[in-house]
Write the structure tokens for this entry.
Amino acid sequence: MRPLTRAEIAAHPLFPTIEKQIAEHLIGIHLRTPRLSRLKASHRKWLMTHSLFALSLQRRDDDPLSGLTATRFVEIVMKLGAASRNTATSFLAELVAYKFLRDVPNIPDRRVRVLETTEAAYDAMSGWFMGHMACLDRLDGGKREELASVDPRIFRIAQPFSAARLAEDPIWRDPPDSIGHFLWSDLGGMVLHGLIARIPSAPDPADRIEIGRLSLPELGEVYMISATNLKRMFKKAETEGLLGWDLPRRRGSLWLSHRFVGDYFQWQSAKFAALDQAFHHAIDELGISVSAATPQPLLAEAGLPA
């Protein structure tokens, strides 16, 4: 079995289904650990979180000064242009305060502070990874989730690989403008997951995809976002005709345009492709054999943008 390409993933008839599946999975993580999910719910924080997690996993026993340090983390963040030096340093301090990072003990050089992820952070990132493996398995009948469940080395190798790939991918790093004003806002990514999770299995092929009654106060309560921030997120999309309500004053049923959903799906396909490449990189490195599976037909599904 080979990794699926981004084009194959985006055009797969089940891709809209797994997008709903991963959205529900990520919403579940948020509801169980809202404080942790807030630390990666904007795209800027997502980039920082995956980068620091990768640094932590790359620590070697034969080099006690390797792994996650403030200096290495800030260098990566500055290279990505994800945040300022002060913001990156404050982000690390916040993770330590919330007990998602801790000091590695017995570092020989007291001038260097080496950090590692705590069990809570590790479990959350592992759960994020496994949720995506389960979705990819639905596309081609693979065994990614099963293999990664029994061999945690797969996750430990794949996460840094995928984090580096996505950080270097301009498509992932710089989302389309149609969804960018959500993703660059705190918790905006969770709002998008909430919208995608409501897409019907067989949407109307017309210009609009109806997702049912949804109010901004309801969204704000679920994701702990102020009404002001929510209105700012939605205003630009409404002005550009990307979404809207069928009644005045944001009442009634909310609809999404096919362009809005299509841009989101195309952007997400980059993440799934990078994760599939990372999985195969890990099993190749570990010498794990995966029996070939018969792929599902790679055809676009009517009604939903690929």
The longest strand covers residues 251-257. DSSP finds 15 helices and six strands in the chain. Residues 258-286 form the longest helix (29 residues).
